[in-house]
Amino acid sequence: MKLSILDQAPILSGLKASDALKEALNLAKLGEELGYTRYWIAEHHNLSGLSSSAPEIMLSYIGANTKKIRIGSGAILLPHYKPYKVAEVFNTLAILFPNRIDLGIGRAPGGSAEATNALSDNFLEQVWKMPATLKELLEFLDTNDLERKESRVIATPLPDQAPKPWLLGTSKKSALLAAEYGMSYAFGHFMSDYDGVEIIKQYKKHFTPIKEGDKAEPLITVSVICADTTREAEELALYNYAWKKMNESLDINVTTTTKDPSKMIETFNRERTLEKLKRNTVIGNQTEVASELQGLKRMYDVEELMIVTIPSTYQERTRSYQLLAEALL
């Protein structure tokens, strides 16, 4: 089994954005040390609990301080940007960190309506144009036949090895678009209410190789809380749920250091809340989590699982990824 990391660069309670970004690097370095395949950092905007608004900048920082782990975006939200600029940025990263760069693409707004309006004009129109915009981006990344591009601009500088494009999604629509364009596909198991197994089957069935030897390459992203004991993992999951609820209602201008998620946990029906959380999050000790992840791998028929983990401290996050590596890598 291949394991990878999805990081949302959370600003945990009592800490600052500077702490979150330093810990993002620490997590990537840990992943490299433990044998994780890739580290992706997400893009979010105007959210008080997350510091991942500029993944392309973080990838420069992380790439310069790691050696071999693949690094990428999970995802660049294409409706906000021009494909040409995205290609230039990721071509530059691919030159700086050869054969290590993944360009994950998404279509979500990534934040509030106000942030969406501040980032781009006519977002919904750009979402509707996503297939054409994505195709344009892929053409900019394709350096195999530059002669046919003499009449158009080229996304320089040109790397020897282009960034690897991935499409991220949670629906059949995104899976079929990835298949049509011969892209690798990352399915968000932890945030989808659809039949993910069927979606991955459809992706594989309709995959169209762009060049000889191309194969469908799916992965699934799973939310995991793993700890030394089941009880501890459940407590961390409840804390994480409270932290998310707290940040959903927290104004971006209000510091998180004054908010304590543990106070909110006292208002929960613990049993009912845990039952709800376990629908989309794998929670438990090392043996329990490893067994459930192996079951997901078989059920989806994929080789790679990408793990997102947000407990109450960065030390607990480190421990969760260590336990997974010990059991599955």
Automatic annotation (TrEMBL):
Enzyme class of the recorded protein, top EC level: oxidoreductase
Family statement: To bacterial alkanal monooxygenase alpha and beta chains.
Organism (species): Halalkalibacter krulwichiae
Residue ranges annotated for the Luciferase-like domain, each copy included: 1-297
Protein name: 2,5-diketocamphane 1,2-monooxygenase
Keywords on record: Monooxygenase, Oxidoreductase
One GO cellular component, as annotated: cytosol
Pfam families reported in the protein's UniProt record: Bac_luciferase
